[in-house]
Amino acid sequence: MKLVKSLLLGSAAGLIAVGGAQAADLPVKAKAVEYVKICSLYGAGFYYIPGTDTCIKLGGYLRAEVALNTNSSFSGQLTSNNGSRNRLTNYYTMRAREDLNIDTRTATEYGVVRTFFDGVFSWTTGNYAGTGSATGTTAYSGTLALNTSGATPALVGSSINGTDGNTSGGSLGVYYAFIQFAGFTMGKAVSQFDAPWTNYPGNNFDSLVGGSGTVTGVNQFTYTADFGQGVTASFSAEDATAYYQAGNLNMTGASATGMIGGSYGSNAIGGSRSPNLVGMVRVDQAWGLFQASVAAHDNHVAYYGATEPTGHPDDKWGWAVQLALSIKNIPTGAGDVINISGVYTDGASRYNFQNLSGGSYSMFGSSGVAYQSVGFAIAPDTVFVTGSSQETVKTWGFRGAYTHNWDPYWNTALYGAYAQAQFGSLAKTTLCGAGGAGGVFGGLAGVTGCNPDFAIGQVGIITRWTPVKNLTFSADLNWTHLDQKYSGTVGYAGAGTTAKPAAVYELKDQDTITLLLRAQRNW
């Protein structure tokens, strides 16, 4: 037995030794693959970044669209070559765009740290500028295009695309880029003044007047307090230079020709001094939403003339107030909604004539009594003349929409907007004289009524079809009306950039219609 036991133990020891030697020659076992895990803390679509406790969500859309009777940005035939309504006017604008947004969130002992980025890659039909004559004005700035003889440029300075660059260039835009932490928002985000639907109470049309709309974000430093039950309040300091300077016009340089072109003098904005100060209170609950917003805007002007000794007017603060209301779950159908807002401004016109709608108009049309008709207007923040103080321009307006869902695949929205600008006594006396019969414009031969006040009215309808989830086709038809207060006729010196000749023009209200057709795939 002892001999057998010794043999068994010896054999076992030998096997262990051999096994150990073989194991030493084998590769080390690989670590388990770390699969991406779903993050359910912040809703659908979030995943943990491998190796971290940060959750990330990617999103965006791809859009293809064509707009009729507009120029580059979807704003109607309102000014310059587009407003001239002749052979220099673009009849359509096409755009292809990819949007990419990145949302990250990390839970900390101070609350959630969030970053958000939204960028767009676009290719857009170019703006047309100039007459395109063989003798020399610019059209679609860029590469020369020769005529059939190859000797003389047929369109001096013409190129494939004047907006987005070279043939394969396009453009990159940054809509939003901000950090949120402990109630603070720091970076480029929608203004706290805006209603949640910004320019779009029910439409795709970009250029509604009647309210603020920083749809591409504005740099800001904001604190938001959350009181629970959907009640929040924010105070914000926001960059005024990008979207909120409608102009501070020195009317000393005003001329009849300039006025017809949509300018009432030289713009004399000074350097940046103060951000816009914004306060907002919002109630967002199941029934809908109510929001009240206020803003203060510093109008800081440079000099009366070209040099410091010419002097300057003092700064003048403007302000704006807006109320917004959304009513959900109305009896007409599931998901139907009414969104409305109203605004009043005094020296802060961009909170009404927002940056995508513009605030300058020079529109030509037909006439039965003159060569053609023209309507023109502008809505700056302030006006002044050399030696005077700034005089604010007051505006008010509203916008709204009703959206009805016919079924899960089709919906239609009716929408509209209205905005009015009112000038003070300094502007009216300078431009129109006492009683509208003098000044820069009112005393001209043929002018029977002179008043720089004006209004813009807009009505539209949009229908959307979503045959499958996240793929939508839409058609948006909009009518814009310029109600200007000038009357009679005027002798206009003409303008080479719009190919308008020197002739007599009728002073008349103007209209424009735009149609936007869009296909969009969200992801």
Automatic annotation (TrEMBL):
Protein name, as recorded? Porin
Tell me where in or outside the cell this protein is found: Cell outer membrane
How is the protein disposed in the membrane? Multi-pass membrane protein
The record lists the organism as Bradyrhizobium ottawaense
Which family does the record assign? Belongs to the alphaproteobacteria porin family.
GO-annotated biological processes: monoatomic ion transport
Q: Which residues form the signal peptide?
A: 1-23
Give the highest taxon in the source lineage.
Bacteria
Task: Sum up the protein's function in the record's words.
Answer: Forms passive diffusion pores that allow small molecular weight hydrophilic materials across the outer membrane.
| Pfam families named in the record | Porin_2
> What are the UniProt keywords, alphabetically?
Cell outer membrane, Ion transport, Membrane, Porin, Signal, Transmembrane, Transmembrane beta strand, Transport
Alphabetically, the GO molecular function entries are: porin activity
The answer on whether this UniProt entry bears the keyword Acetylation reads no
The question of whether Zinc is a record keyword is answered with no
GO cellular component, alphabetical, reads: cell outer membrane; pore complex
